[in-house]
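Hi everyone,

Forwarding the result from last night's run.
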Amino acid sequence: MSIDRTLAGRPGHNRGQTYPAEVLTADEVRALMRATNRGNTGIRNRALIAVLYRAGLRLSEALALKPSDVDVDGGTIRVLHGKGDRARTVGLDHGAAALVGRWLDQRRNLGLNGRRRLFTKLDGSKWSPQGVREMLKRAAAKAGIEKRVHPHGLRHTHAAELAREGAPTNLIQAQLGHASLAVTDRYLRHIAPRELVETIRRRAWDL
């Protein structure tokens, strides 16, 4: 499995060219959220960023959610159709859950019922993956973030943070919805090569 983001065939990129995953810092994610629009659009955007970043969902999984799939008080999200059509329940911390809860309240104020997807346009119509990517791109530019900011990068960031915090690989596997521990191990070695980095940093060198 390749973790690189292949940009083959996109305008301005050479066919077959790949780029490594770029992990954001916590401060960069905060800046990204602060750079989103104000009002209802911003409340929705920050809730989606929270789900991608703090729950590690794939964009397709996040856009498929319905309000009933989220338990704000319990801190859980139920993904009914993950990759390979596998269902799973993931955790969501209190801060992220609060952002989702605020969007749920605003949805009701907008007259959006529970049969509609959790993340839609404000009129209830479908919010496309490309629309989300463009939103993140605009917010990143406004925030002055020079890294490539995209939905899967927020998932990478979630996994890297869990690895740095010492979470067991099987827990990370369950959260990300990987088919096997081997997949998660390759994923983490690519985006969070912790042992390698720590070993190199311990080496002494003076100029």
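The longest helix spans residues 39-54.

Cheers,
N.
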